Amino acid sequence: MTNKVFFTPGPSELYPTVLAHMQSAMENKIGSISHRSQQFKDIYAHAVAGLRRLLQLPDNYEVLFLSSANEIWERAIQNLVQEESFHLVNGSFSKRFYEISAELGKKTNKFEVPFGEGFRPEEVAIPDTAELVALIHNETSSGVSIPVADIAQYRQSAPKESLLFVDAVSSLPHPEFDYNQMDSVYFSVQKCFGLPAGLGVWLLNERCLAKAHALQKSGISLGSYHTIPVLVEKGRAHQTPETPNVLNLYLLGKVVDDMNKKGIATIRQETETKARLIYDFLEKSKNFEPAVQNTAFRSLTTIVANTRIPAAELNKLLAPYDMAIGSGYGSYKDTQIRIANFPAHTVSQVEALLYELESLGV
Amino acid sequence: MTNKVFFTPGPSELYPTVLAHMQSAMENKIGSISHRSQQFKDIYAHAVAGLRRLLQLPDNYEVLFLSSANEIWERAIQNLVQEESFHLVNGSFSKRFYEISAELGKKTNKFEVPFGEGFRPEEVAIPDTAELVALIHNETSSGVSIPVADIAQYRQSAPKESLLFVDAVSSLPHPEFDYNQMDSVYFSVQKCFGLPAGLGVWLLNERCLAKAHALQKSGISLGSYHTIPVLVEKGRAHQTPETPNVLNLYLLGKVVDDMNKKGIATIRQETETKARLIYDFLEKSKNFEPAVQNTAFRSLTTIVANTRIPAAELNKLLAPYDMAIGSGYGSYKDTQIRIANFPAHTVSQVEALLYELESLGV
Question: Which UniProt keywords are listed (chains A, B) (predicted)?
Fold first, then answer.
């Protein structure tokens, strides 16, 4: 039994209602129902309708369910890139998408800035040959965001035929995207949706579908059970090609319901309030400082700070108070901390964390 | 709230202890822990050790976790077949593996018998050029099994360099395989392991790893995050490349514990007892008959019968008694039923089902 509150950047704290929904899932034996039954189709349709409402998603977008953001990276390249992709890189996850494209035999280009830095659209030259342009809205490793308003500028400078991808793995539902300025967005449920891991959600428009069809027509293999055409066809029938993670789909629909009841405006506002509390604390602290210098690029959902004390030490000090924060990513493990600011985290939990960090004199 | 007992062939009845394990998972916040933590590595190692013991798996086999059997089919072809695969086909799932190979651009060969029929090893000519030979131990759509003892004959007649694959999606842990006569076996957790769907388990030996390395060395792309070399490397460190379905991995380890406590011999014996009860009932019934004529080929875990009354009608009659059976697969939806006989189903539950089917006069 643990009462620990997880401020780790995903898997993270579960949304407060997950426990009750899991109990009702077990009582209703959701883990036993057929994935070809009407009951499953209703669960699928419910999750999609809820997400459309929460994200204010235009009708020309499909909502697809895969296993992870890793899988989405791979399927995106496999289904949408014949020759070449282009990537903004400023941390481990944006770099990984870039690497995956190369591992699948594509020509890859990147515009890279150091870990912890952001991008200025006017400095980014996107090659005319890029078929997929990968933006990283929120780099979970470094805590750097792309301001939502900048995305339209990338759309302007990207080749007209290219597909603009936005990684919002650890930021949605906070960012208020203009989905007309992009072609695809994706996220993982174990970040801001406060669910157990095992599901990646892929939003893509009709231009992605058309490109996949065109590649397929030219004789290129898009894969097998998880090609975009198959996923879209099955998805429109509220089905998946394989037996999916039914339980998580059920929980997603329920949590999205709860988020809709709360209202996206309130969720956004609370996210901003909590982010302000955390950054204010970091600015004043003598042991921490925000890792991202430029305030315009600071993530609101995965907040990274330089630290004098490694996260492992801090977590030992926080353990008696039932709290855990994230360590820095990769080689920043001991010199940075990461604090998740997700919808599952309440204002009072954040206040308690900051109070303890201050009281500990660290 | 439902007390329905699911005799559907997967997703199916959850193993009786899953409810308690899920409760303890939620109390211990397994859904929130980092997939890079020692706690996760322990969960991973525990599931692997339990499976090794339950299945009596030799040390030269790796245990890998993917998202579904569909994914395992695709990764197998992508990682292990340069030119050509060969498939035994006698139903929808064995056919799907064959199709996936073609969709990935490989040359495919098959030996096909009609739905509901089995294979005689002496009649199967495996081409010398086959790199992967796909056997279907248990065809979930038609209820046909390959007798375990026949597998050695396929190994004899298959090209020496070829990799012998055994689909045990809906039969393990019952079959007592000689793992030295094959190179890979795989199953889904929502069948005989009585878990929620969202995890495919892939067992493969050092010959598979060597072949994947050889293809990679020759410049062939094996994919990206889920190549065999990456999965094996991460797996040996009790990790996965992506954030996996942590909760299901935890539940798998716990259920396998319970199965080991019960003992594989008892599980096998009970499976055989229940299968005999069901087949005896079907033989005597005037409304059903076993769909598989040859008793040597009858599945013990997914039992298929021809029916005069469609499953949808039967399930309406069974609903007041809190029971559900599976319909026939695909075009057999109304003319066949499928009864799952998994470790989660107790002898008394099976007796109750047969009693009701008899009492209903059907």
Answer: Aminotransferase, Pyridoxal phosphate, Transferase
pLDDT digits (tens, 9 = 90+) for A228-263: 999 999 999 999 999 999 999 999 999 999 999 999
- Inspect the interface and report whether the beta carbons of B27 and A2 lie closer than 8 Å: yes
Cα B213 from chain centre: 26
The domain total for chain A is 2
Name chain B contacts of A69, Cβ cutoff 8 Å.
242-243
pLDDT at B302: 98
Across the interface, whether the CB atoms of B195 and A31 are under 8 A apart is answered: yes
Rounded to whole angstroms, the Cα distance separating B213 from B221 reads 11
Q: Same structural domain for residues A271 and A338? A: yes
In which residue are the tokens 């900051």 written? Answer: A354
- Interface pTM, i.e. ipTM: 0.97
pLDDT digits (tens, 9 = 90+) for A168-178: 999 999 999 99
- Residues B22, B66, single domain; the answer is yes
End of a domain among A240, A260, A280?
A260
Interval B95-138: pLDDT, tens? 999 999 999 999 999 999 999 999 999 999 999 999 999 999 99
Contacts of B14 in chain A (CB under 8 A): 29, 31-32
| Contact state of B31 with A18 under an 8 Å Cβ cutoff | yes
CB contact under 8 A, A6 and B67: no
Q: Are residues B337 and B251 in the same domain?
A: no
- Token pair listed for B190: 């929502």
Q: Calculate how close chain A gets to B152, using CA atoms only, in Å.
A: 30
Q: What angle do CA B97, A249, B301 make, to 5 degrees?
A: 45
Q: How far apart are CA B151 and CA B225, in angstroms?
A: 32
The CATH number of whichever domain residue A334 belongs to comes to 3.90.1150.10
- Here the CATH number for the domain that contains residue A243 is 3.40.640.10
**Domain end marker among A260, A285, A306:** A260
Kindly state the average pLDDT of the residues B154-177.
Answer: 98
Please name the helix (run of DSSP H) or strand (run of DSSP E) that holds residue A6, with its range, or none. Answer: strand A5-7
Domain limits for position B194: 18-260
DSSP B13: P
d(CA B127, CA B159): 8
| Same domain membership, residue B303 and residue B243 | no
